[in-house]
Amino acid sequence: MQAAREQTTVSPSSDYMDWEKDTETYNYDHFRTQHFLYDVKATVAGHGVQPGDLAPDFSLPATEGTLQLSELRGKPVLLHFGSPT
Amino acid sequence: MEPLKKLHSQFSGRVHFVDVIVRQAHPGPGAPTYHSQEEKLKHARSYRQEHTIPWIIAADDLGGTVHQQYGGMADPTYLIDVDGRVAFYNMWTYVPALHEALDDLFAQSGRGVVHGGIDRTPYMLPALTCGWPGLAKGLPQSLVEMETAFPGTGVGVWAGYQLRPLLAPMAQRTEALPTAAKVGLVAGASALATFGIIHLAKRGRS
Question: ipTM of the assembly?
Answer without folding.
Answer: 0.88
